[in-house]
Amino acid sequence: MVHGADAVPVIDLHDHDAATRIAAACERSGFLVITNHDVDDDVVGRAWEVATKFFDLPLEHKMSVAMPYPGYPYGYAPLQGERLAASLGAETPPDLKETFSMGPPSSPFERGEACADPAEAFVYEPTPWPAALPEFQTAMQAYYSAQAELVSRIMRLFAVALDLSDDFFETRIDRHTSALRVLNYPALTRPPAAGQLRAGAHTDYGTLTVLKADDSPGGLEVLVDERWFAVPLVEGSFIVNLGDAMARWTNDRWRSTLHRVVVPPAEVAATARRQSIAFFHNANWDAVIECIPSCLAPGDSPRYAPVTAGQHLMSKFQATQH
After folding, report:
1. Within 10 A of 57 (CB to CB), how many other CB atoms are there?
2. Which of 292, 272, 83, 111 lies closest to 193, judged by CA?
3. Cα–Cα distance for residue pair 155/167, rounded to 1 Å
């Protein structure tokens, strides 16, 4: 049984026992908070600042970089433009958030390469950038690069935690197809509809997510042992959670856990604006996700058939488009 304080542990990435503690957290809740992560504070601060400026732009400027059609992966999505719970088949009111998503800053096509799988071109669709805020692109791309470097270090610790060589994941993530999303949860001008949340209960799709969030009321919660726990916020930290691909890779030894963003209490809802930045890490499009041998107990068998990371990602994404 998991209890509040240890549902989401805080782990110093430079501690000698970091890999051991990561393994325990990934088995227990699939969530952890990391400190001493070596990401440049200036890069984080600048990205946070320009994200706020973007969401403060007049709506017409934000809509100028709106996702051009349903199912397009990048650009602006206005308030109540998404239902995350739909990825699990749940029918809920739309989420009380607005977002901007970007893809990889560079693509194989810019190097004169072609994707072996034509479907891979989806993750390299252009990201539209707002002319009204030219510094937005530079700050977001710098943050994307910093997060990619951080995830490479985390994945080495993951490999050790899974009794693998520390470079096990390197050739499987060296052409990762990750996405970055900035999110704004405005203060509420009216009570939410029944069952309406800032972000409906869902799991993430890829290997892991790295989240930067503020401490505004109405925050992130994770479901552990059939109870919702608030994820702790530690100054200078990041929240890390596993995605469905990592759970599949580990034969569900590690957990991709339901989480949500709740609405603030009624007494502060009119002033409780919230902001976050999420880096959704995905493995190489052609990386094969199959049961890691160290995650297979004697006499047990893999729960899932092998699948490429690209096939897995597209099946998850398409589920939200219906």
Report:
1. 17
2. 83
3. 8
The DSSP line for 83-103 is -GGGGGT---PPPS-EEEEE-
What is the C-alpha separation between 264 and 271, in angstroms, rounded? 9
CA distance 45 to 43: 6
CA distances from 101 to 13, 73, 251, 280 (A): 28, 7, 30, 10
Q: pTM higher than 0.90 for the full model?
A: yes
Summarize the chain as % helix, strand, coil (round to 5): 30, 20, 50
Query: pLDDT tens for residues 115-157?
Result: 778 889 999 999 999 999 999 999 999 999 999 999 999 999 9
Q: CA–CA distance from 181 to each of 76, 88, 101, 110, 196 (Å)?
A: 10, 20, 4, 23, 21
Q: Around Cβ 30, how many Cβ atoms within 10 Å? A: 25
Amino acid at 290: E
Dihedral pair phi/psi, residue 301, rounded to 5°: -135, 155
Q: CA end-to-end span of the chain, whole Å?
A: 36
Q: Are strands 238-242 and 259-261 parallel, antiparallel or unpaired?
A: unpaired
